[in-house]
User: What shape does this take?
Amino acid sequence: MSLLSVENLRVAFPSDHGPVEVVKGLSFDLGRERLGIVGESGSGKSMTGRAVMGLIGKPARVTADRLEFEGQDLRALSERQFRRLRGARMSMVLQDPKFSLNPVIRIGEQIAEALEFHTGLTARQRRVKVLEALEAVRIDDPERVARLFPHEVSGGMGQRVMIAMMVVMEPALMIADEPTSALDVSVRGQVLDIMDDLVRRRGMGLMLISHDLNMVARWCDRILVMYQGRIVEELGAGQLGAAQHPYTRGLLASVPRIDEDRDRLPVLDRAALGACQ
Assistant: This one.
């Protein structure tokens, strides 16, 4: 049974010239696996994740023939019901802790908010859970870090805190939207390794949204390639080199390599891509 089932998902925003669709009929299933969604900026990746989380409000319009999570119809949920689901059974890791963490609340208190909202644990029990979550993301001194404010930690540690915040309730689904784009290369692998370990050990489903094809190929089981709001190709992670769609091939060709001597990277042929849709 699929953890998440999406059929004909559409997201549209009003404009002076009528509705503009940014997600155009997406359909996919996600089990307890690592699913990568890749594409350039504006392809609809983040909007897909936010639509699943119920985070797109008016004036946007979100429709789907099917949008089910653990057998529950997400289309029928009120905002109150969605709030009970978010953070408890599904969570979302955003790309930059500087803008996602509250700068005036200590880290431990922010992680504990989900426990306070979703459980009946005492303050002492919540503190134990917070420290366990920080240990799970390989923070060596969780007692000290829990007392810090977000500006007192590095970007890499801030991202670990964000992951701890999302997994403290042990959700079934984690959506990670560009979780490493604001990190140094040396820290990026560590954060991905932590996420991979949590997903495998806790049996979670992961939707990893990124523009980095090589990273997704290394860390995911399946890849969906999005272009202009549509899925244009689906591949196993090990099959990326055998991609057939011109858009996927164009993305791969535009990735620079250390061992090359090209003077200029190729650009996507938009006219040819339009003929392929």
About this structure: The mean pLDDT is 88.
